[in-house]
Every structure is written in C-alpha cells, then in structure tokens.
TrEMBL record:
Residue ranges annotated for the Amidohydrolase-related domain, each copy included: 58-395
Source species, domain of life: Eukaryota
Any one Gene Ontology cellular component term annotated for this protein: cytosol
SUPFAM superfamilies (alphabetical): Metallo-dependent hydrolases (SSF51556)
Pfam families: Amidohydro_1
GO molecular function: guanine deaminase activity; zinc ion binding
Organism annotation: Apiotrichum porosum
BP GO annotations: guanine metabolic process
Cofactor: Zn(2+)
Keyword Protease: no
Identification of the protein by name: Amidohydrolase-related domain-containing protein
Keywords, ordered alphabetically: Hydrolase, Metal-binding, Zinc
InterPro entries: Amidohydro-rel (IPR006680), Metal-dep_hydrolase_composite (IPR011059), Metal_Hydrolase (IPR032466), Metallo-dep_hydrolases (IPR051607)
Amino acid sequence: MSVFRGTLVDTPSPGELRIRRDHVISVDTHGVITHLSPASSTPSDLVAQAIPLTERGFLLPTFADLHLHAPQYLNAGIGLDLPLMEWLDEYTYVAEERVDADPELARRLYARLVERLIEAGTGCVVAFGTIGVQANLILAQAFQDAGVRGFIGKLSMDQCPRPTYGEPSTAASLASVTEFLDRMDSLTGPLPPHQRVVAPILTPRFVPTCSDELLRGLAALAKARGVKVQSHMCESRDQMAWVEGTRGKADEVVFDEAGLLTEDTVQAHVTSFPPALVELVKTRGVTVAHCPLSNAYFSDAAFPLREAIDAGVKVGLGSDIAGGYALPIQTAMRQAVVVGRMREGARREAGGEQPHDGRGLKVDWVESLYLATRGGHAALGLGGAFEVGLPFDAQEITLVRGTRAVGQLDIFDLADTDKWWTEAVERWWCNGDHQNRTGMWVQGKRLLKQSA
C-alpha cells in the first residue's frame, strides 16, 4: 500500500475545479484508491505512513490522449503546409510503411515515444498504429513495459491509398486484425488484471480506405470480442467530399449503417458537427477526440466544443501526432481555449445570436483541464479523478521549491489560501511544463521520479 499527504487537484465535472488541501490518499497493491480524507480526520496510522508531497505542489490525474498516430511521431512537425489528403500521401503512409518494414526502427521510435509521453504527464493513449501485426505488437510491448495505458490500434484498410501500402482484400484485412487480437491476448493474458495496461482497439482508418464490407465485419468483431473502436469522422472538407463522391452519403451515415457508432467508439475530429449529428453522437454514446492543433492545419472548420459540452456529448482531447506537432496534452488544452475564444469573437463580429447562458462560445481553462483528465479517462471507462474505487493514475506537479518557483513559472507571493491555490493552478495551466512534473503513477505504479 502507498499513502500520500498533500494537495489534490481534479475536475469531477466540466467547469468544476476541486482543490483539496492537506488530504491523505491511500492506494492498495492493485493500484486502486482505497481511502481519501482530510488529514485532520484520517486515522493516525495512515497519517503516520503518509509520504508528504511537495508543500507548494499537488497531485493531478494523468492526461489522456484520445488520438495519437504512433508511427507518425517520425514526422512530428513537418509537412503541415499541405492539404490533408496530399499530406497523408507524401508523409503519413510513407512513415507507416517504414515502421512496418523495420522492426528495429519501430522499437527505437516507440521506446522514445513512451518516454516523451511520461515526461508530458500522459498516462493513457488511444493510438493508431500501422497495418502490420508485428509493428503493433512492438508498440503494445513498449507501452506495457513502460507502464503507460495504451489502446493499440492495428489499422484496417482494404481500399489501398497507394500501391505499396494497404491490405489486399476484406478477408485478408479481417484475418490480420483477428491475428492481432489473438496475439494481444497472448501478450496480456499471463498478467494479473491490474497489470494489463494495454488493450487492442479496432481501427478502420477512415471511410476512404475501408469498404462497407470491412466496416460491417469490424463491427461484428468488436461486438464478439468486446473491443473498442476508433476512427476519423468528418475531419476536413476534402475528406468529406471524397466520401460523398464515392459513397453517395455522409461519413456518419456510413459508420452508423455499419454499426460502428456505439458507446465504445472514439471518433477523432468531427469538425462538421451540425445539430442532427450532435444528436446522433450523443444518442449512440460516441466519444469525440477533439484535436484543436491539427484541426487548425487540416480542417476547414473548428470543432464546436462549447456546443458539444453543453449538449452532454462525451469529449476528450487528442494530440493527433503528427497532424498536430505537439505531443503534450497541455498544448491541446491551451489550444482548445484559444479556439473557443476565437469562435466567440467571430460570432460577435458576425452579430450571431447570444447563447442563452451568456457565455457565448468560449471554453475556459478549467473545462479544458476536465477534458484532458476526467473527460478523456471516463470515456474509456477509467478514472481521471481522485475518488475511492478509481485507479490511482496521477502526476505530481511542483510549483515552488523553497522560495523559488520551478521551471517557467514566476510566483512571488506564497500565501496559503483557497484563492492562492486556484490562481497557482491556473498559472501552471498557462505556463507550466515538464519541469514541474516531479512524479507520475499509473495504476499505482510509479513511472517518473525526478528533482524539480
């Protein structure tokens, strides 16, 4: 058992910032929170066992990245001037082919990727891989060895985007992903349940690369094997036009008719989100992975985050490496707020109707923190908050050592009031970075320990 004493920060619901000062939290040997209370009302034996956190620091749930293309980490930060479909052809498919063809490259790439994720406080990732079974098993092993939660997606795509990269038939695609599921079972099966931090996720890349037959087959496989599903939906104007021109129907209609819009589905982007689609996504229980940075480069519209939150749609954040160039979810949090404020400015300029609650289209920093932690984890059936019975997935953030602020922060007043703590957390949200992250745990296992 592990016991900690200090300040806990989390966001149980959108817009709710919960700061609990001088609390004791205990974690059992399976990595589950078993006790949480103010130190003043905690049994003395637990208080005696507690490891004190940094006085001017706090525990925060780890970040969840709901949309990351692992092999594209090779390309992070290049080629972003191209339209989406051209960028995929020139950079993305090439990177994935390289990773599938070179297991040693895959090992080096994925080992570095998980190191960077831990450094960035990301404890859970929904990852697109490649079409090759071996490379995806290397990816899964890298996550499992590092202790980072990973939903690993072997791509399914029977309509090849290029002669050298794709699967030859629907039958071959379904056989390949079934082999991947079986081998993932072999990888995690010998481990006790609380140590299984990786799982497969079925991954039809997007409608342009998947036949209707393949999509139906994947839906049946998801139901039979109890596996989650991820894809892209309504990402950009050129992509949606391609689907309309080849299928004669919209993205969401293709997915829904195949049976792939369910409460176990994560769809990235959805920047075209009219009221009818909002209702469909909400009714089906689909989670949207909002990727504000990559949307700015490859989409023709901003995801209507304010409306989605208000409608009760399940939403989390994604880095969308490498369509987004920044791996830390802190960047996605900040960009989500910036995009919301720009949308509100455009609404005012156009004389649009003021939403009934008076907030307009803005999203604040606390709501973005919810999306990065509780929102993303809860959509996957995980925790993302500090409550008894939830997994202990946490990062320790240190703001000040002695009298000097850490990293990029400059804090000159060291009061100990509720107002000071709220403002200090907001300062960290704005200007904090990896230097403030001095500890990280997933399912109770410590992954990071460093001096601030």
